[in-house]
From TrEMBL:
Boundaries of every CN hydrolase domain copy: 1-238
Protein name: Hydrolase
GO molecular function list: hydrolase activity
Entry keyword set: Hydrolase
Coiled-coil segments on the chain, per record: none
Lineage: Bacteria, Bacillati, Actinomycetota, Actinomycetes, Micrococcales
Pfam families xrefs: CN_hydrolase
Record family assignment: Belongs to the carbon-nitrogen hydrolase superfamily. NIT1/NIT2 family.
Keyword set includes Ligase: no
Length: 264
């Protein structure tokens, strides 16, 4: 299965411009044969947590969600997008959604680990564990940005059966070790393929790293981007995770009863 990752510069609160970028990328990726396009964290509204919280009318979110479904449907490609969501209790959270090629929602997830003062001022952390769905024959899950830097998040997805983890992110310049080292370690230790799609350029004073990557379940680098805008592609072998888990059974040989005694 061919994955496509959008690495691009969004415009804060310019929904029309950002949607045009997603639509064009979806069209190009679909023509290339990609099954899914993964877009960066909060890309449709831009990554600027305080400005988004103060300037985005939440009544527009259902229309924007339908816009994303229309992009997937019209281009015949799966789509991962990230938007704010408002809970029944009025809490704002950062979310990610996986759509199939018909625009139907397969999976939604709320960000559990918020990064930095701006995110904590604008959003509340979610609590649900990563869920798993079948996407084109591969058990697939979602986490968002900082979540993937915690081994517990990735391991929870893997224990639930995930073999592919799709990750919208907004990683600033200066954190090069996250995509270059940490992501590959996460993929190796939980034997999942991880696709990590980041912003590039500067948005609202934040300079983004780029550096989007796809890491295989053996920790190998399947694809990697530099700092410039681009569409990144990687072919995922549907049998790769199962082979790695058979060769070295990390998941089967865990000892969670003992870890609980250790206070983990």
């Amino acid at each position: 299965m061919l994955l496509a990752l959008l690495q691009e510069n969004s415009v804060v609160l310019d929904v029309e411009a950002n949607c045009r970028v997603i639509d064009a990328a979806a069209r190009t990726a679909a023509a290339r044969g990609a099954a899914v396009l993964v877009t960066p964290e909060l890309f449709p509204v831009g990554y600027a947590p305080r400005r988004v919280r103060s300037g985005l009318d939440p009544s527009l979110l259902p229309e924007l969600q339908e816009r994303m479904a229309g992009i997937a449907r019209s281009n015949g490609i799966g789509l991962v997008y990230s938007l704010p969501r408002v809970t029944g209790q009025g809490d704002w959270q950062i979310s990610a959604t996986l759509l199939d090629a018909s625009g139907a929602t397969l999976l939604s997830y709320g960000k559990v680990h918020l990064f930095g003062d701006d995110e904590r001022a604008a959003f509340s952390p979610a609590r649900e564990a990563p869920a798993v769905v079948d996407f084109n024959g591969i058990p697939t899950s979602l986490v968002i940005c900082y979540d993937v830097e915690f081994p517990e998040s990735v391991r929870a997805a893997a224990v639930a059966g995930a073999e592919l983890l799709l990750v919208p992110t907004a990683l600033a310049h200066g954190f090069d070790d996250v995509p270059q080292v940490l992501l590959r370690a996460r993929a190796l230790e939980s034997q999942v393929t991880i696709a990590y799609a980041n912003h590039s350029g500067e948005e609202d004073g934040c300079r983004f790293l780029g550096g989007s990557v796809v890491a295989g379940p053996d920790g190998g680098l399947l694809a990697g981007a530099g700092g410039e805008p681009q569409l990144l592609y990687a072919e995922v072998d549907p049998g790769a995770a199962a082979r790695e888990r058979q060769n070295v059974p990390y998941l089967a040989e865990r000892r969670p009863d003992l870890y609980r005694l250790w206070g983990l």
